[in-house]
From TrEMBL, chain A:
Keyword field contains Transcription: no
A biological process from GO: ubiquitin-dependent protein catabolic process
PROSITE patterns per record: CULLIN_1, CULLIN_2
Domain Cullin family profile stretches: 438-688
SUPFAM superfamilies the record matches: Cullin homology domain, Cullin repeat-like, Winged helix' DNA-binding domain
The protein, known as: Cullin family profile domain-containing protein
GO CC, alphabetical: cullin-RING ubiquitin ligase complex
Keyword terms of this UniProt record: Isopeptide bond, Ubl conjugation
Family, per entry: Belongs to the cullin family.
UniProtKB/TrEMBL annotation, chain B:
Subcellular location: Nucleus
GO aspect biological process, one term: ubiquitin-dependent protein catabolic process
Family, per entry: Belongs to the SKP1 family.
Cross-referenced SUPFAM superfamilies: POZ domain
CDD domains documented for this protein: BTB_POZ_EloC
Organism name: Eeniella nana
Entry protein name: Elongin-C
GO cellular component, one term: nucleus
Keyword entries, A-Z: Nucleus
Positions of the SKP1 component POZ domain: 12-73
Amino acid sequence: MLPNSTRGRTKIRPPRKILSSEVDVEKSWAVLQKAIEEIQHKNASKLSFEELYRNAYNLVLRKHGKLLYDRVEGQIRKCLSEQVRLGLLNKLASSGIDDRQFLQALNKEWEDHLLSMRMISDVLMYLDRVYAKESHLPLIYDVGLNAFRDSVIKYNNNEIGDKIITIIIDYLNRSRLGEIVDKFIIKAVIYMFESLTEVVNIDISSVSGSANYGENYYLHYFEPRLMLSSHEYFEDKSIELLDQRSGVIYIEKVTQLIQDEESRIQMYLPDVSAPKMLELMDNDLISRNLESIMMFETDGLKLWINDDNYTLLQLLFKLITRVDSEHEMLKRRLRSIILENGEEINQLSNEQLEQEVTQKKQEEEKKRIIAEAHGKKLVVRHRSSKEQATRYAIRWIHNFLSLKRKYDLVAEKSFDNNIGILEEIDAAFSTFFNSNNKSAEYLSLFIDDCIRRSLKDKSSDEVEQTLNNCIVVFRFIKDKDVFEKYYKNHLAKRLLQQKSLSSEIEMNMITKLKQEIGSSFTARLEGMFRDIKLSQELSSDFNNRFARQDVGETDAGAEIRQKNHGRKLELDSSILTTSFWPMPINKSMHSIQYPDELQVLKDQYEVFYDIKHRGRNLTWAPNFGTVDIRIHYPKKTYEVNMATLAAVVILKCFNDSEDLRNKHTFEEIQGITQIPVPELKRHLQSISVASRSRLLKKTPMSRDICAGDLFEINEHFKSPQTRIKVLTVASGSKVEDDLQRSETMEIINKSRIMETEAAVVRIMKARRELKHQELINEVIKQLLNRFKPQPSFIKQRIEDLIEKEYLKRDEKDRSIYQYLA
Amino acid sequence: MSDSDEEKTSPYVTLISNDGYSFQITREAAMISGTLRGMLNTSFQESSTNTIKMHELDSQLLEKVVEYLYYNLKYNELVDVPEFDIPTEMALELLVAADFLDV
């Protein structure tokens, strides 16, 4: 091929000229004009391409390109305007022709026109190549398309075009109503619209806001109308659906509608419109309404979740995914619903509890009536308010768990386990969980209840499941140290009172906690276990030895044995490492005067322990122990198990004298035993007031122990069983009251101070020098497993440490701390 | 165009010079020229007869043109191509012919 530039500059004429150098312009045009008419009437096959081409070629070559170009355009326009357009208008006017036939006629004209233009532009190839390109004019073919646009479609103020658009939009609307329409004709016409380019006009394009490129009749005229009508349609539809006030109907209908519309778009509309239409549809049907739909009281998101309506929720999720991949709308609603649910849990737990209580009451009432009918009197036992609160806590955790499980299922079945939504759900749960300042205690109580009672006779799978659930709840706890505190308390009680169903379950729970949060958290819990285990070995060792000694009999042993009618004394001790266990060493217990029996055991044990572990300090904590004693009442002998302190009272004050009528005032007892007053009151209450275990008789007979009350052995004590257990007031694990709670929080706060300071020192020791903010961040990171310290709290600790000269500020930059070794 | 469909299947076309000589060339070669391609691809007279009268070219020139069409066909996609021999006296005429034929 020859380079373009050569051709462009070609003025050189061949030396041997074949044709006459003079061309008759009019004659050549006449030939071409005739040919164009023939082509438009589909008579092209009679024409010689070569002749036409040659004529056009010669015209262009002799610089008549412009003339030819303009005349061709005029010719095309004339034909379109006078024949095609009028023909179409006639069809429109005639009654015998329906929309579809009109569109078909139009399409036929269009196709014919395209074909003619193809041929004309082929013949005028040279004109295109040389004249049009050099003058930067559209090619003849495009001239033909523009002519069709101007002379047919847009002629007379878009007369025909308007009509076509109306027809097609009407078609689309009819198809929306379920009518079957001729999709081929619609597609064809839309394709035609797309082929008609629009003259780029800055004003218009800036108004419509779209790019100048690729403007065509479709985008410019058709699409806006389409959008408008679709918008109306969607809006009508959504209003119609909203009127039904039913979220279910709305979501189902809209899902169906969207599906239909999508296939419609795919079938009729070009790709450029699809995203716009989808956006419009999503906006009209989803974004605008769905949030209010979800809030429907009677038929909204909350209800669906409540009803586990997974299919519907899935539809909802899919709809929302269309408009927002982050699902903000859904997350917002979920959050507030979960918080509402949280409120409901509080209520529900209360109601369930009340129901339980009324049921119990009714049963007891029945029992009472039956008993009375038999002439017996039965005392109705009322649950203490603390016990109530404990049951409430257990219920609460239980309900919390089932709610969480419900949402997990919903997320799994309907929300695709979408990570963002899962996070939102967890966050919402965490918020409402932590908004209850007792939740950590509740969980610990729940676990306590499980291990004491509810896991009894459960399969190992069920146990595993329950414990895992506990861990699920545990994750939500923000201040893990608070939980640890309670857990330790409850665990201690379980271990000392041997209330655990099995140590396996205990260990399992601790292992799980360890996996969850690390060994530093559980080290002390494990230590508690070790203590108990070692203690058991020690005790059996001690008891063996003490028992053996009666062969070689020590003085003290013999004396006691004799006193106890030859019966052996045994001691089960629990040696507890002070730092592991939650109970403080109670100094006030030091001065207690033990009865001889116990004193002997105590001394013996101390000697025994000192041999085993030299140099260790034993502090006795009688307030946790129990004693089995045998009491001879005039009528019967009972074996009574009671708290050590209660036993001290009985053995010390009411055992010495043979005279059972021995009376002591409260002050006397206190003087003899040296038991601290509040403890003494508590234990006296359990052995003199509690109905089942009224071992002592109190005068006056009132509920509360007051100074000056008189106590004596209750000769008329009667009990159906031989073995009695004296329940000490407030044993077992119960919800703390407010006072206790604030005490607990104070303890926790103290340990937080320690931990924070320890963390600061640890970090500074390693880093030597650190900026304030970095230090704060590091501390928060280290403590996150335990609790979330406030920066101001940390700052205070740092100040303290500076005062104690662990740290100092850098002299130049005050925001830098340095570690002082 | 349907009536020319069968004819089109013919692999040869005939070019006739203005002094009456015919040249049978393969359709493939003829297609190299944009002008000839236009003539053969649209439903004009030429496409049904598979014959093109070249009023602008004499036999000498047309022969050279045909030679070039084959030369182009053969070497179009290769790199190291031999010179195409153009007699000096014919150069200008060939230039015009090339412009006319769009090659």
